[in-house]
Specification:
By secondary structure, the chain is an alpha/beta fold. The chain is built from 15 helices and 19 strands. The strands form 4 sheets. It has a 7-stranded mixed sheet with strand order 3-2-7-16-17-18-19, with helices on one face. α2 packs parallel to α3. The longest helix is centred in the C-terminal third of the chain and has 18 residues.
Length: 444
Amino acid sequence: MTPAGEVDLVVTGGLCVACNETGDVTSGDIYLDGGRIVAVGGPPRPARRSLDASGTIVIPGLINLHDHLRDMTPGLSAGEGLKLDDMLRFYWRLNETAGPVEYETMAAYSTARLLAAGVTTVVDHVYPFHRPGLDAATIAGYQTTGIRWFLARGLMTQGHEPICESIDDAFERIGTLLDGGVPGDRIMPAPVSFRQAAPEDYLAARRFADAHGLRLYTHVAETAAEVAAVQAEHGSRPIEFLHRLGFTGPDVTLVHCVLLSDTEIELLAGSGTHVVHCPSNHMKLAKGFTRVLDLIDAGVNVGLGVDQMVDIFCEMRQEVLLQSIRNEDPGAISPALALRMATANGAKAVGLGGQLGEISAGARADLVCVAADGLGFGPVLDPVWNLVHRAGGSDVRHVIVDGEPLIEDREFVHLDVEALRRQAMDVIDGYLAKANIDNTRHDP
């Protein structure tokens, strides 16, 4: 803050849902300076800029803990309707043709789409790295839009040889990123899964992460076939095996965790390991019901991932509904808990608990203003209920990341979205042509 007390930005007129432990809802203005929230309410103070949030509910920026943003083929008929293992084999073959242009363009396009729907932080699980420069290209794509990004840098050493890399090559490439100035707190070595990485890769990733102060990440316990294979080969269930490998702890995030035993839930809780649930993806691929309520009751931190689906508002709603069915209890997951899963819980999983995911003095200034004055949204008796059960990404009016407005009145401030869209469509057409796939787009 300047000596005169003037702050960078004040967000005025909105109803603030803080997403903190006490569930505060206030109508005070929010003052931002130097990328931080310096005050919520209180005496008026001068600001260099103001942003009118009248008619909106102001929430912390939403946190998408799991996605694969280099998705150039949503709705491709050849891949629709396949269960997970068959779908992976199809897309592994398709991946052979992708290069740096595809990785950078789609990282930019997809993060723009997330920002427009209120996601200010994303963990992108990226793989394969079968050509040089793919990781740097991906990061360049993130930087185009200004999203707060984390690269779960995939380690794929087996499964489909043309797109695999050795573990030594993977660590050398991560080292190049770190030596080039990429902050270590943005990079997570991420063995893709037990299908695509060997146990020794998990051990090596743990050693590498410890040596460089990095967090770890992987998919696990997604299918009955995976659980059976790990049990047959290693004599324990997947989470138990990860624990034996040292791949649990407060610096580890595990995605999906659909099929868990009571013992595995206890291991996750005792080790402080974070879990990501992706409700819509699990339904689409018929994976089953993750024991989210049991995990939370045991003390496990559980966040949400979009995982190539619609938006995180949808995931909050699906979490409430899916766990109602799973537990035969309409109140199993409350709207307030679902919202915290998409905010404060996500912040804990990326190592920024108390700094992201809530609106409080001292927190990083990532904010989203959700229009609450439309026919489809109101009436608002409980703003949290409305956010979870009636809001969608199209209701987002303003988005602020690190104190900087990136979207105002639904328009990007610095990004030419139409040019980016045209670039992405050209890249997708070229990608499909290189893969000899005839799938005509039907753009309006």
